[in-house]
Every structure is written in C-alpha cells, then in structure tokens.
Amino acid sequence: SHFKFAKNRIAELDKDNFVCNYTMIEGDVLDDKLEFTAYEIKFEEGSNGGCICKMASEYHSIGNLEVKEDEIKAGKDSAMGIYKVVEAYLLENPRVYA
User: Which residue range or ranges hold the Bet v I/Major latex protein domain (predicted)?
Assistant: First the structure.
C-alpha cells in the first residue's frame, strides 16, 4: 500500500457475537476528502462448517464531497486482500486459534 499510517479507535468488541465496530480517525488514507470512516465487522456461522464475514462501511466526507464508487471498490478490494492473507495464515496454522 502507498499509505503510511492509519489510526483506528475500537468502539465495540463483542467476543460473544463475533462483532467489532471501529472507526478510522486519522491517517493519510483519509486524504483531504474524509473526516472519518466507520466499520462494522461481523462473523457468522457458515453452512459448510466455516464462517461468513460481513463488513459494513460508512464514509463521512468533509463538506459536500461525495466518495466515488471506484474509490469505495478500491477500499473493499484492499480489505478483501487483508482477509485473504489472514485466512491463508489460519488455514496453514490452525493451532493459533484451536
């Protein structure tokens, strides 16, 4: 990534329901377009014995600026890349979560 830093604040960590809410409050990733971005990550049981990860994002822009669809897609693709790396690691190292 070409970004140098991001600062997040955890708002909720619900271990029983596998939910995490956090807000990106600082960082060059926000650029001059966003005040902050809020996220909710939730893991649900999948039908095949695995899990389903659901992620919602709220973009809070500065002024009346609209976040473009291609910028949202780029953020989603980046997040999915991180999840794929974590998934691959956990599949190769099941002892870390067993």
Answer: 3-93
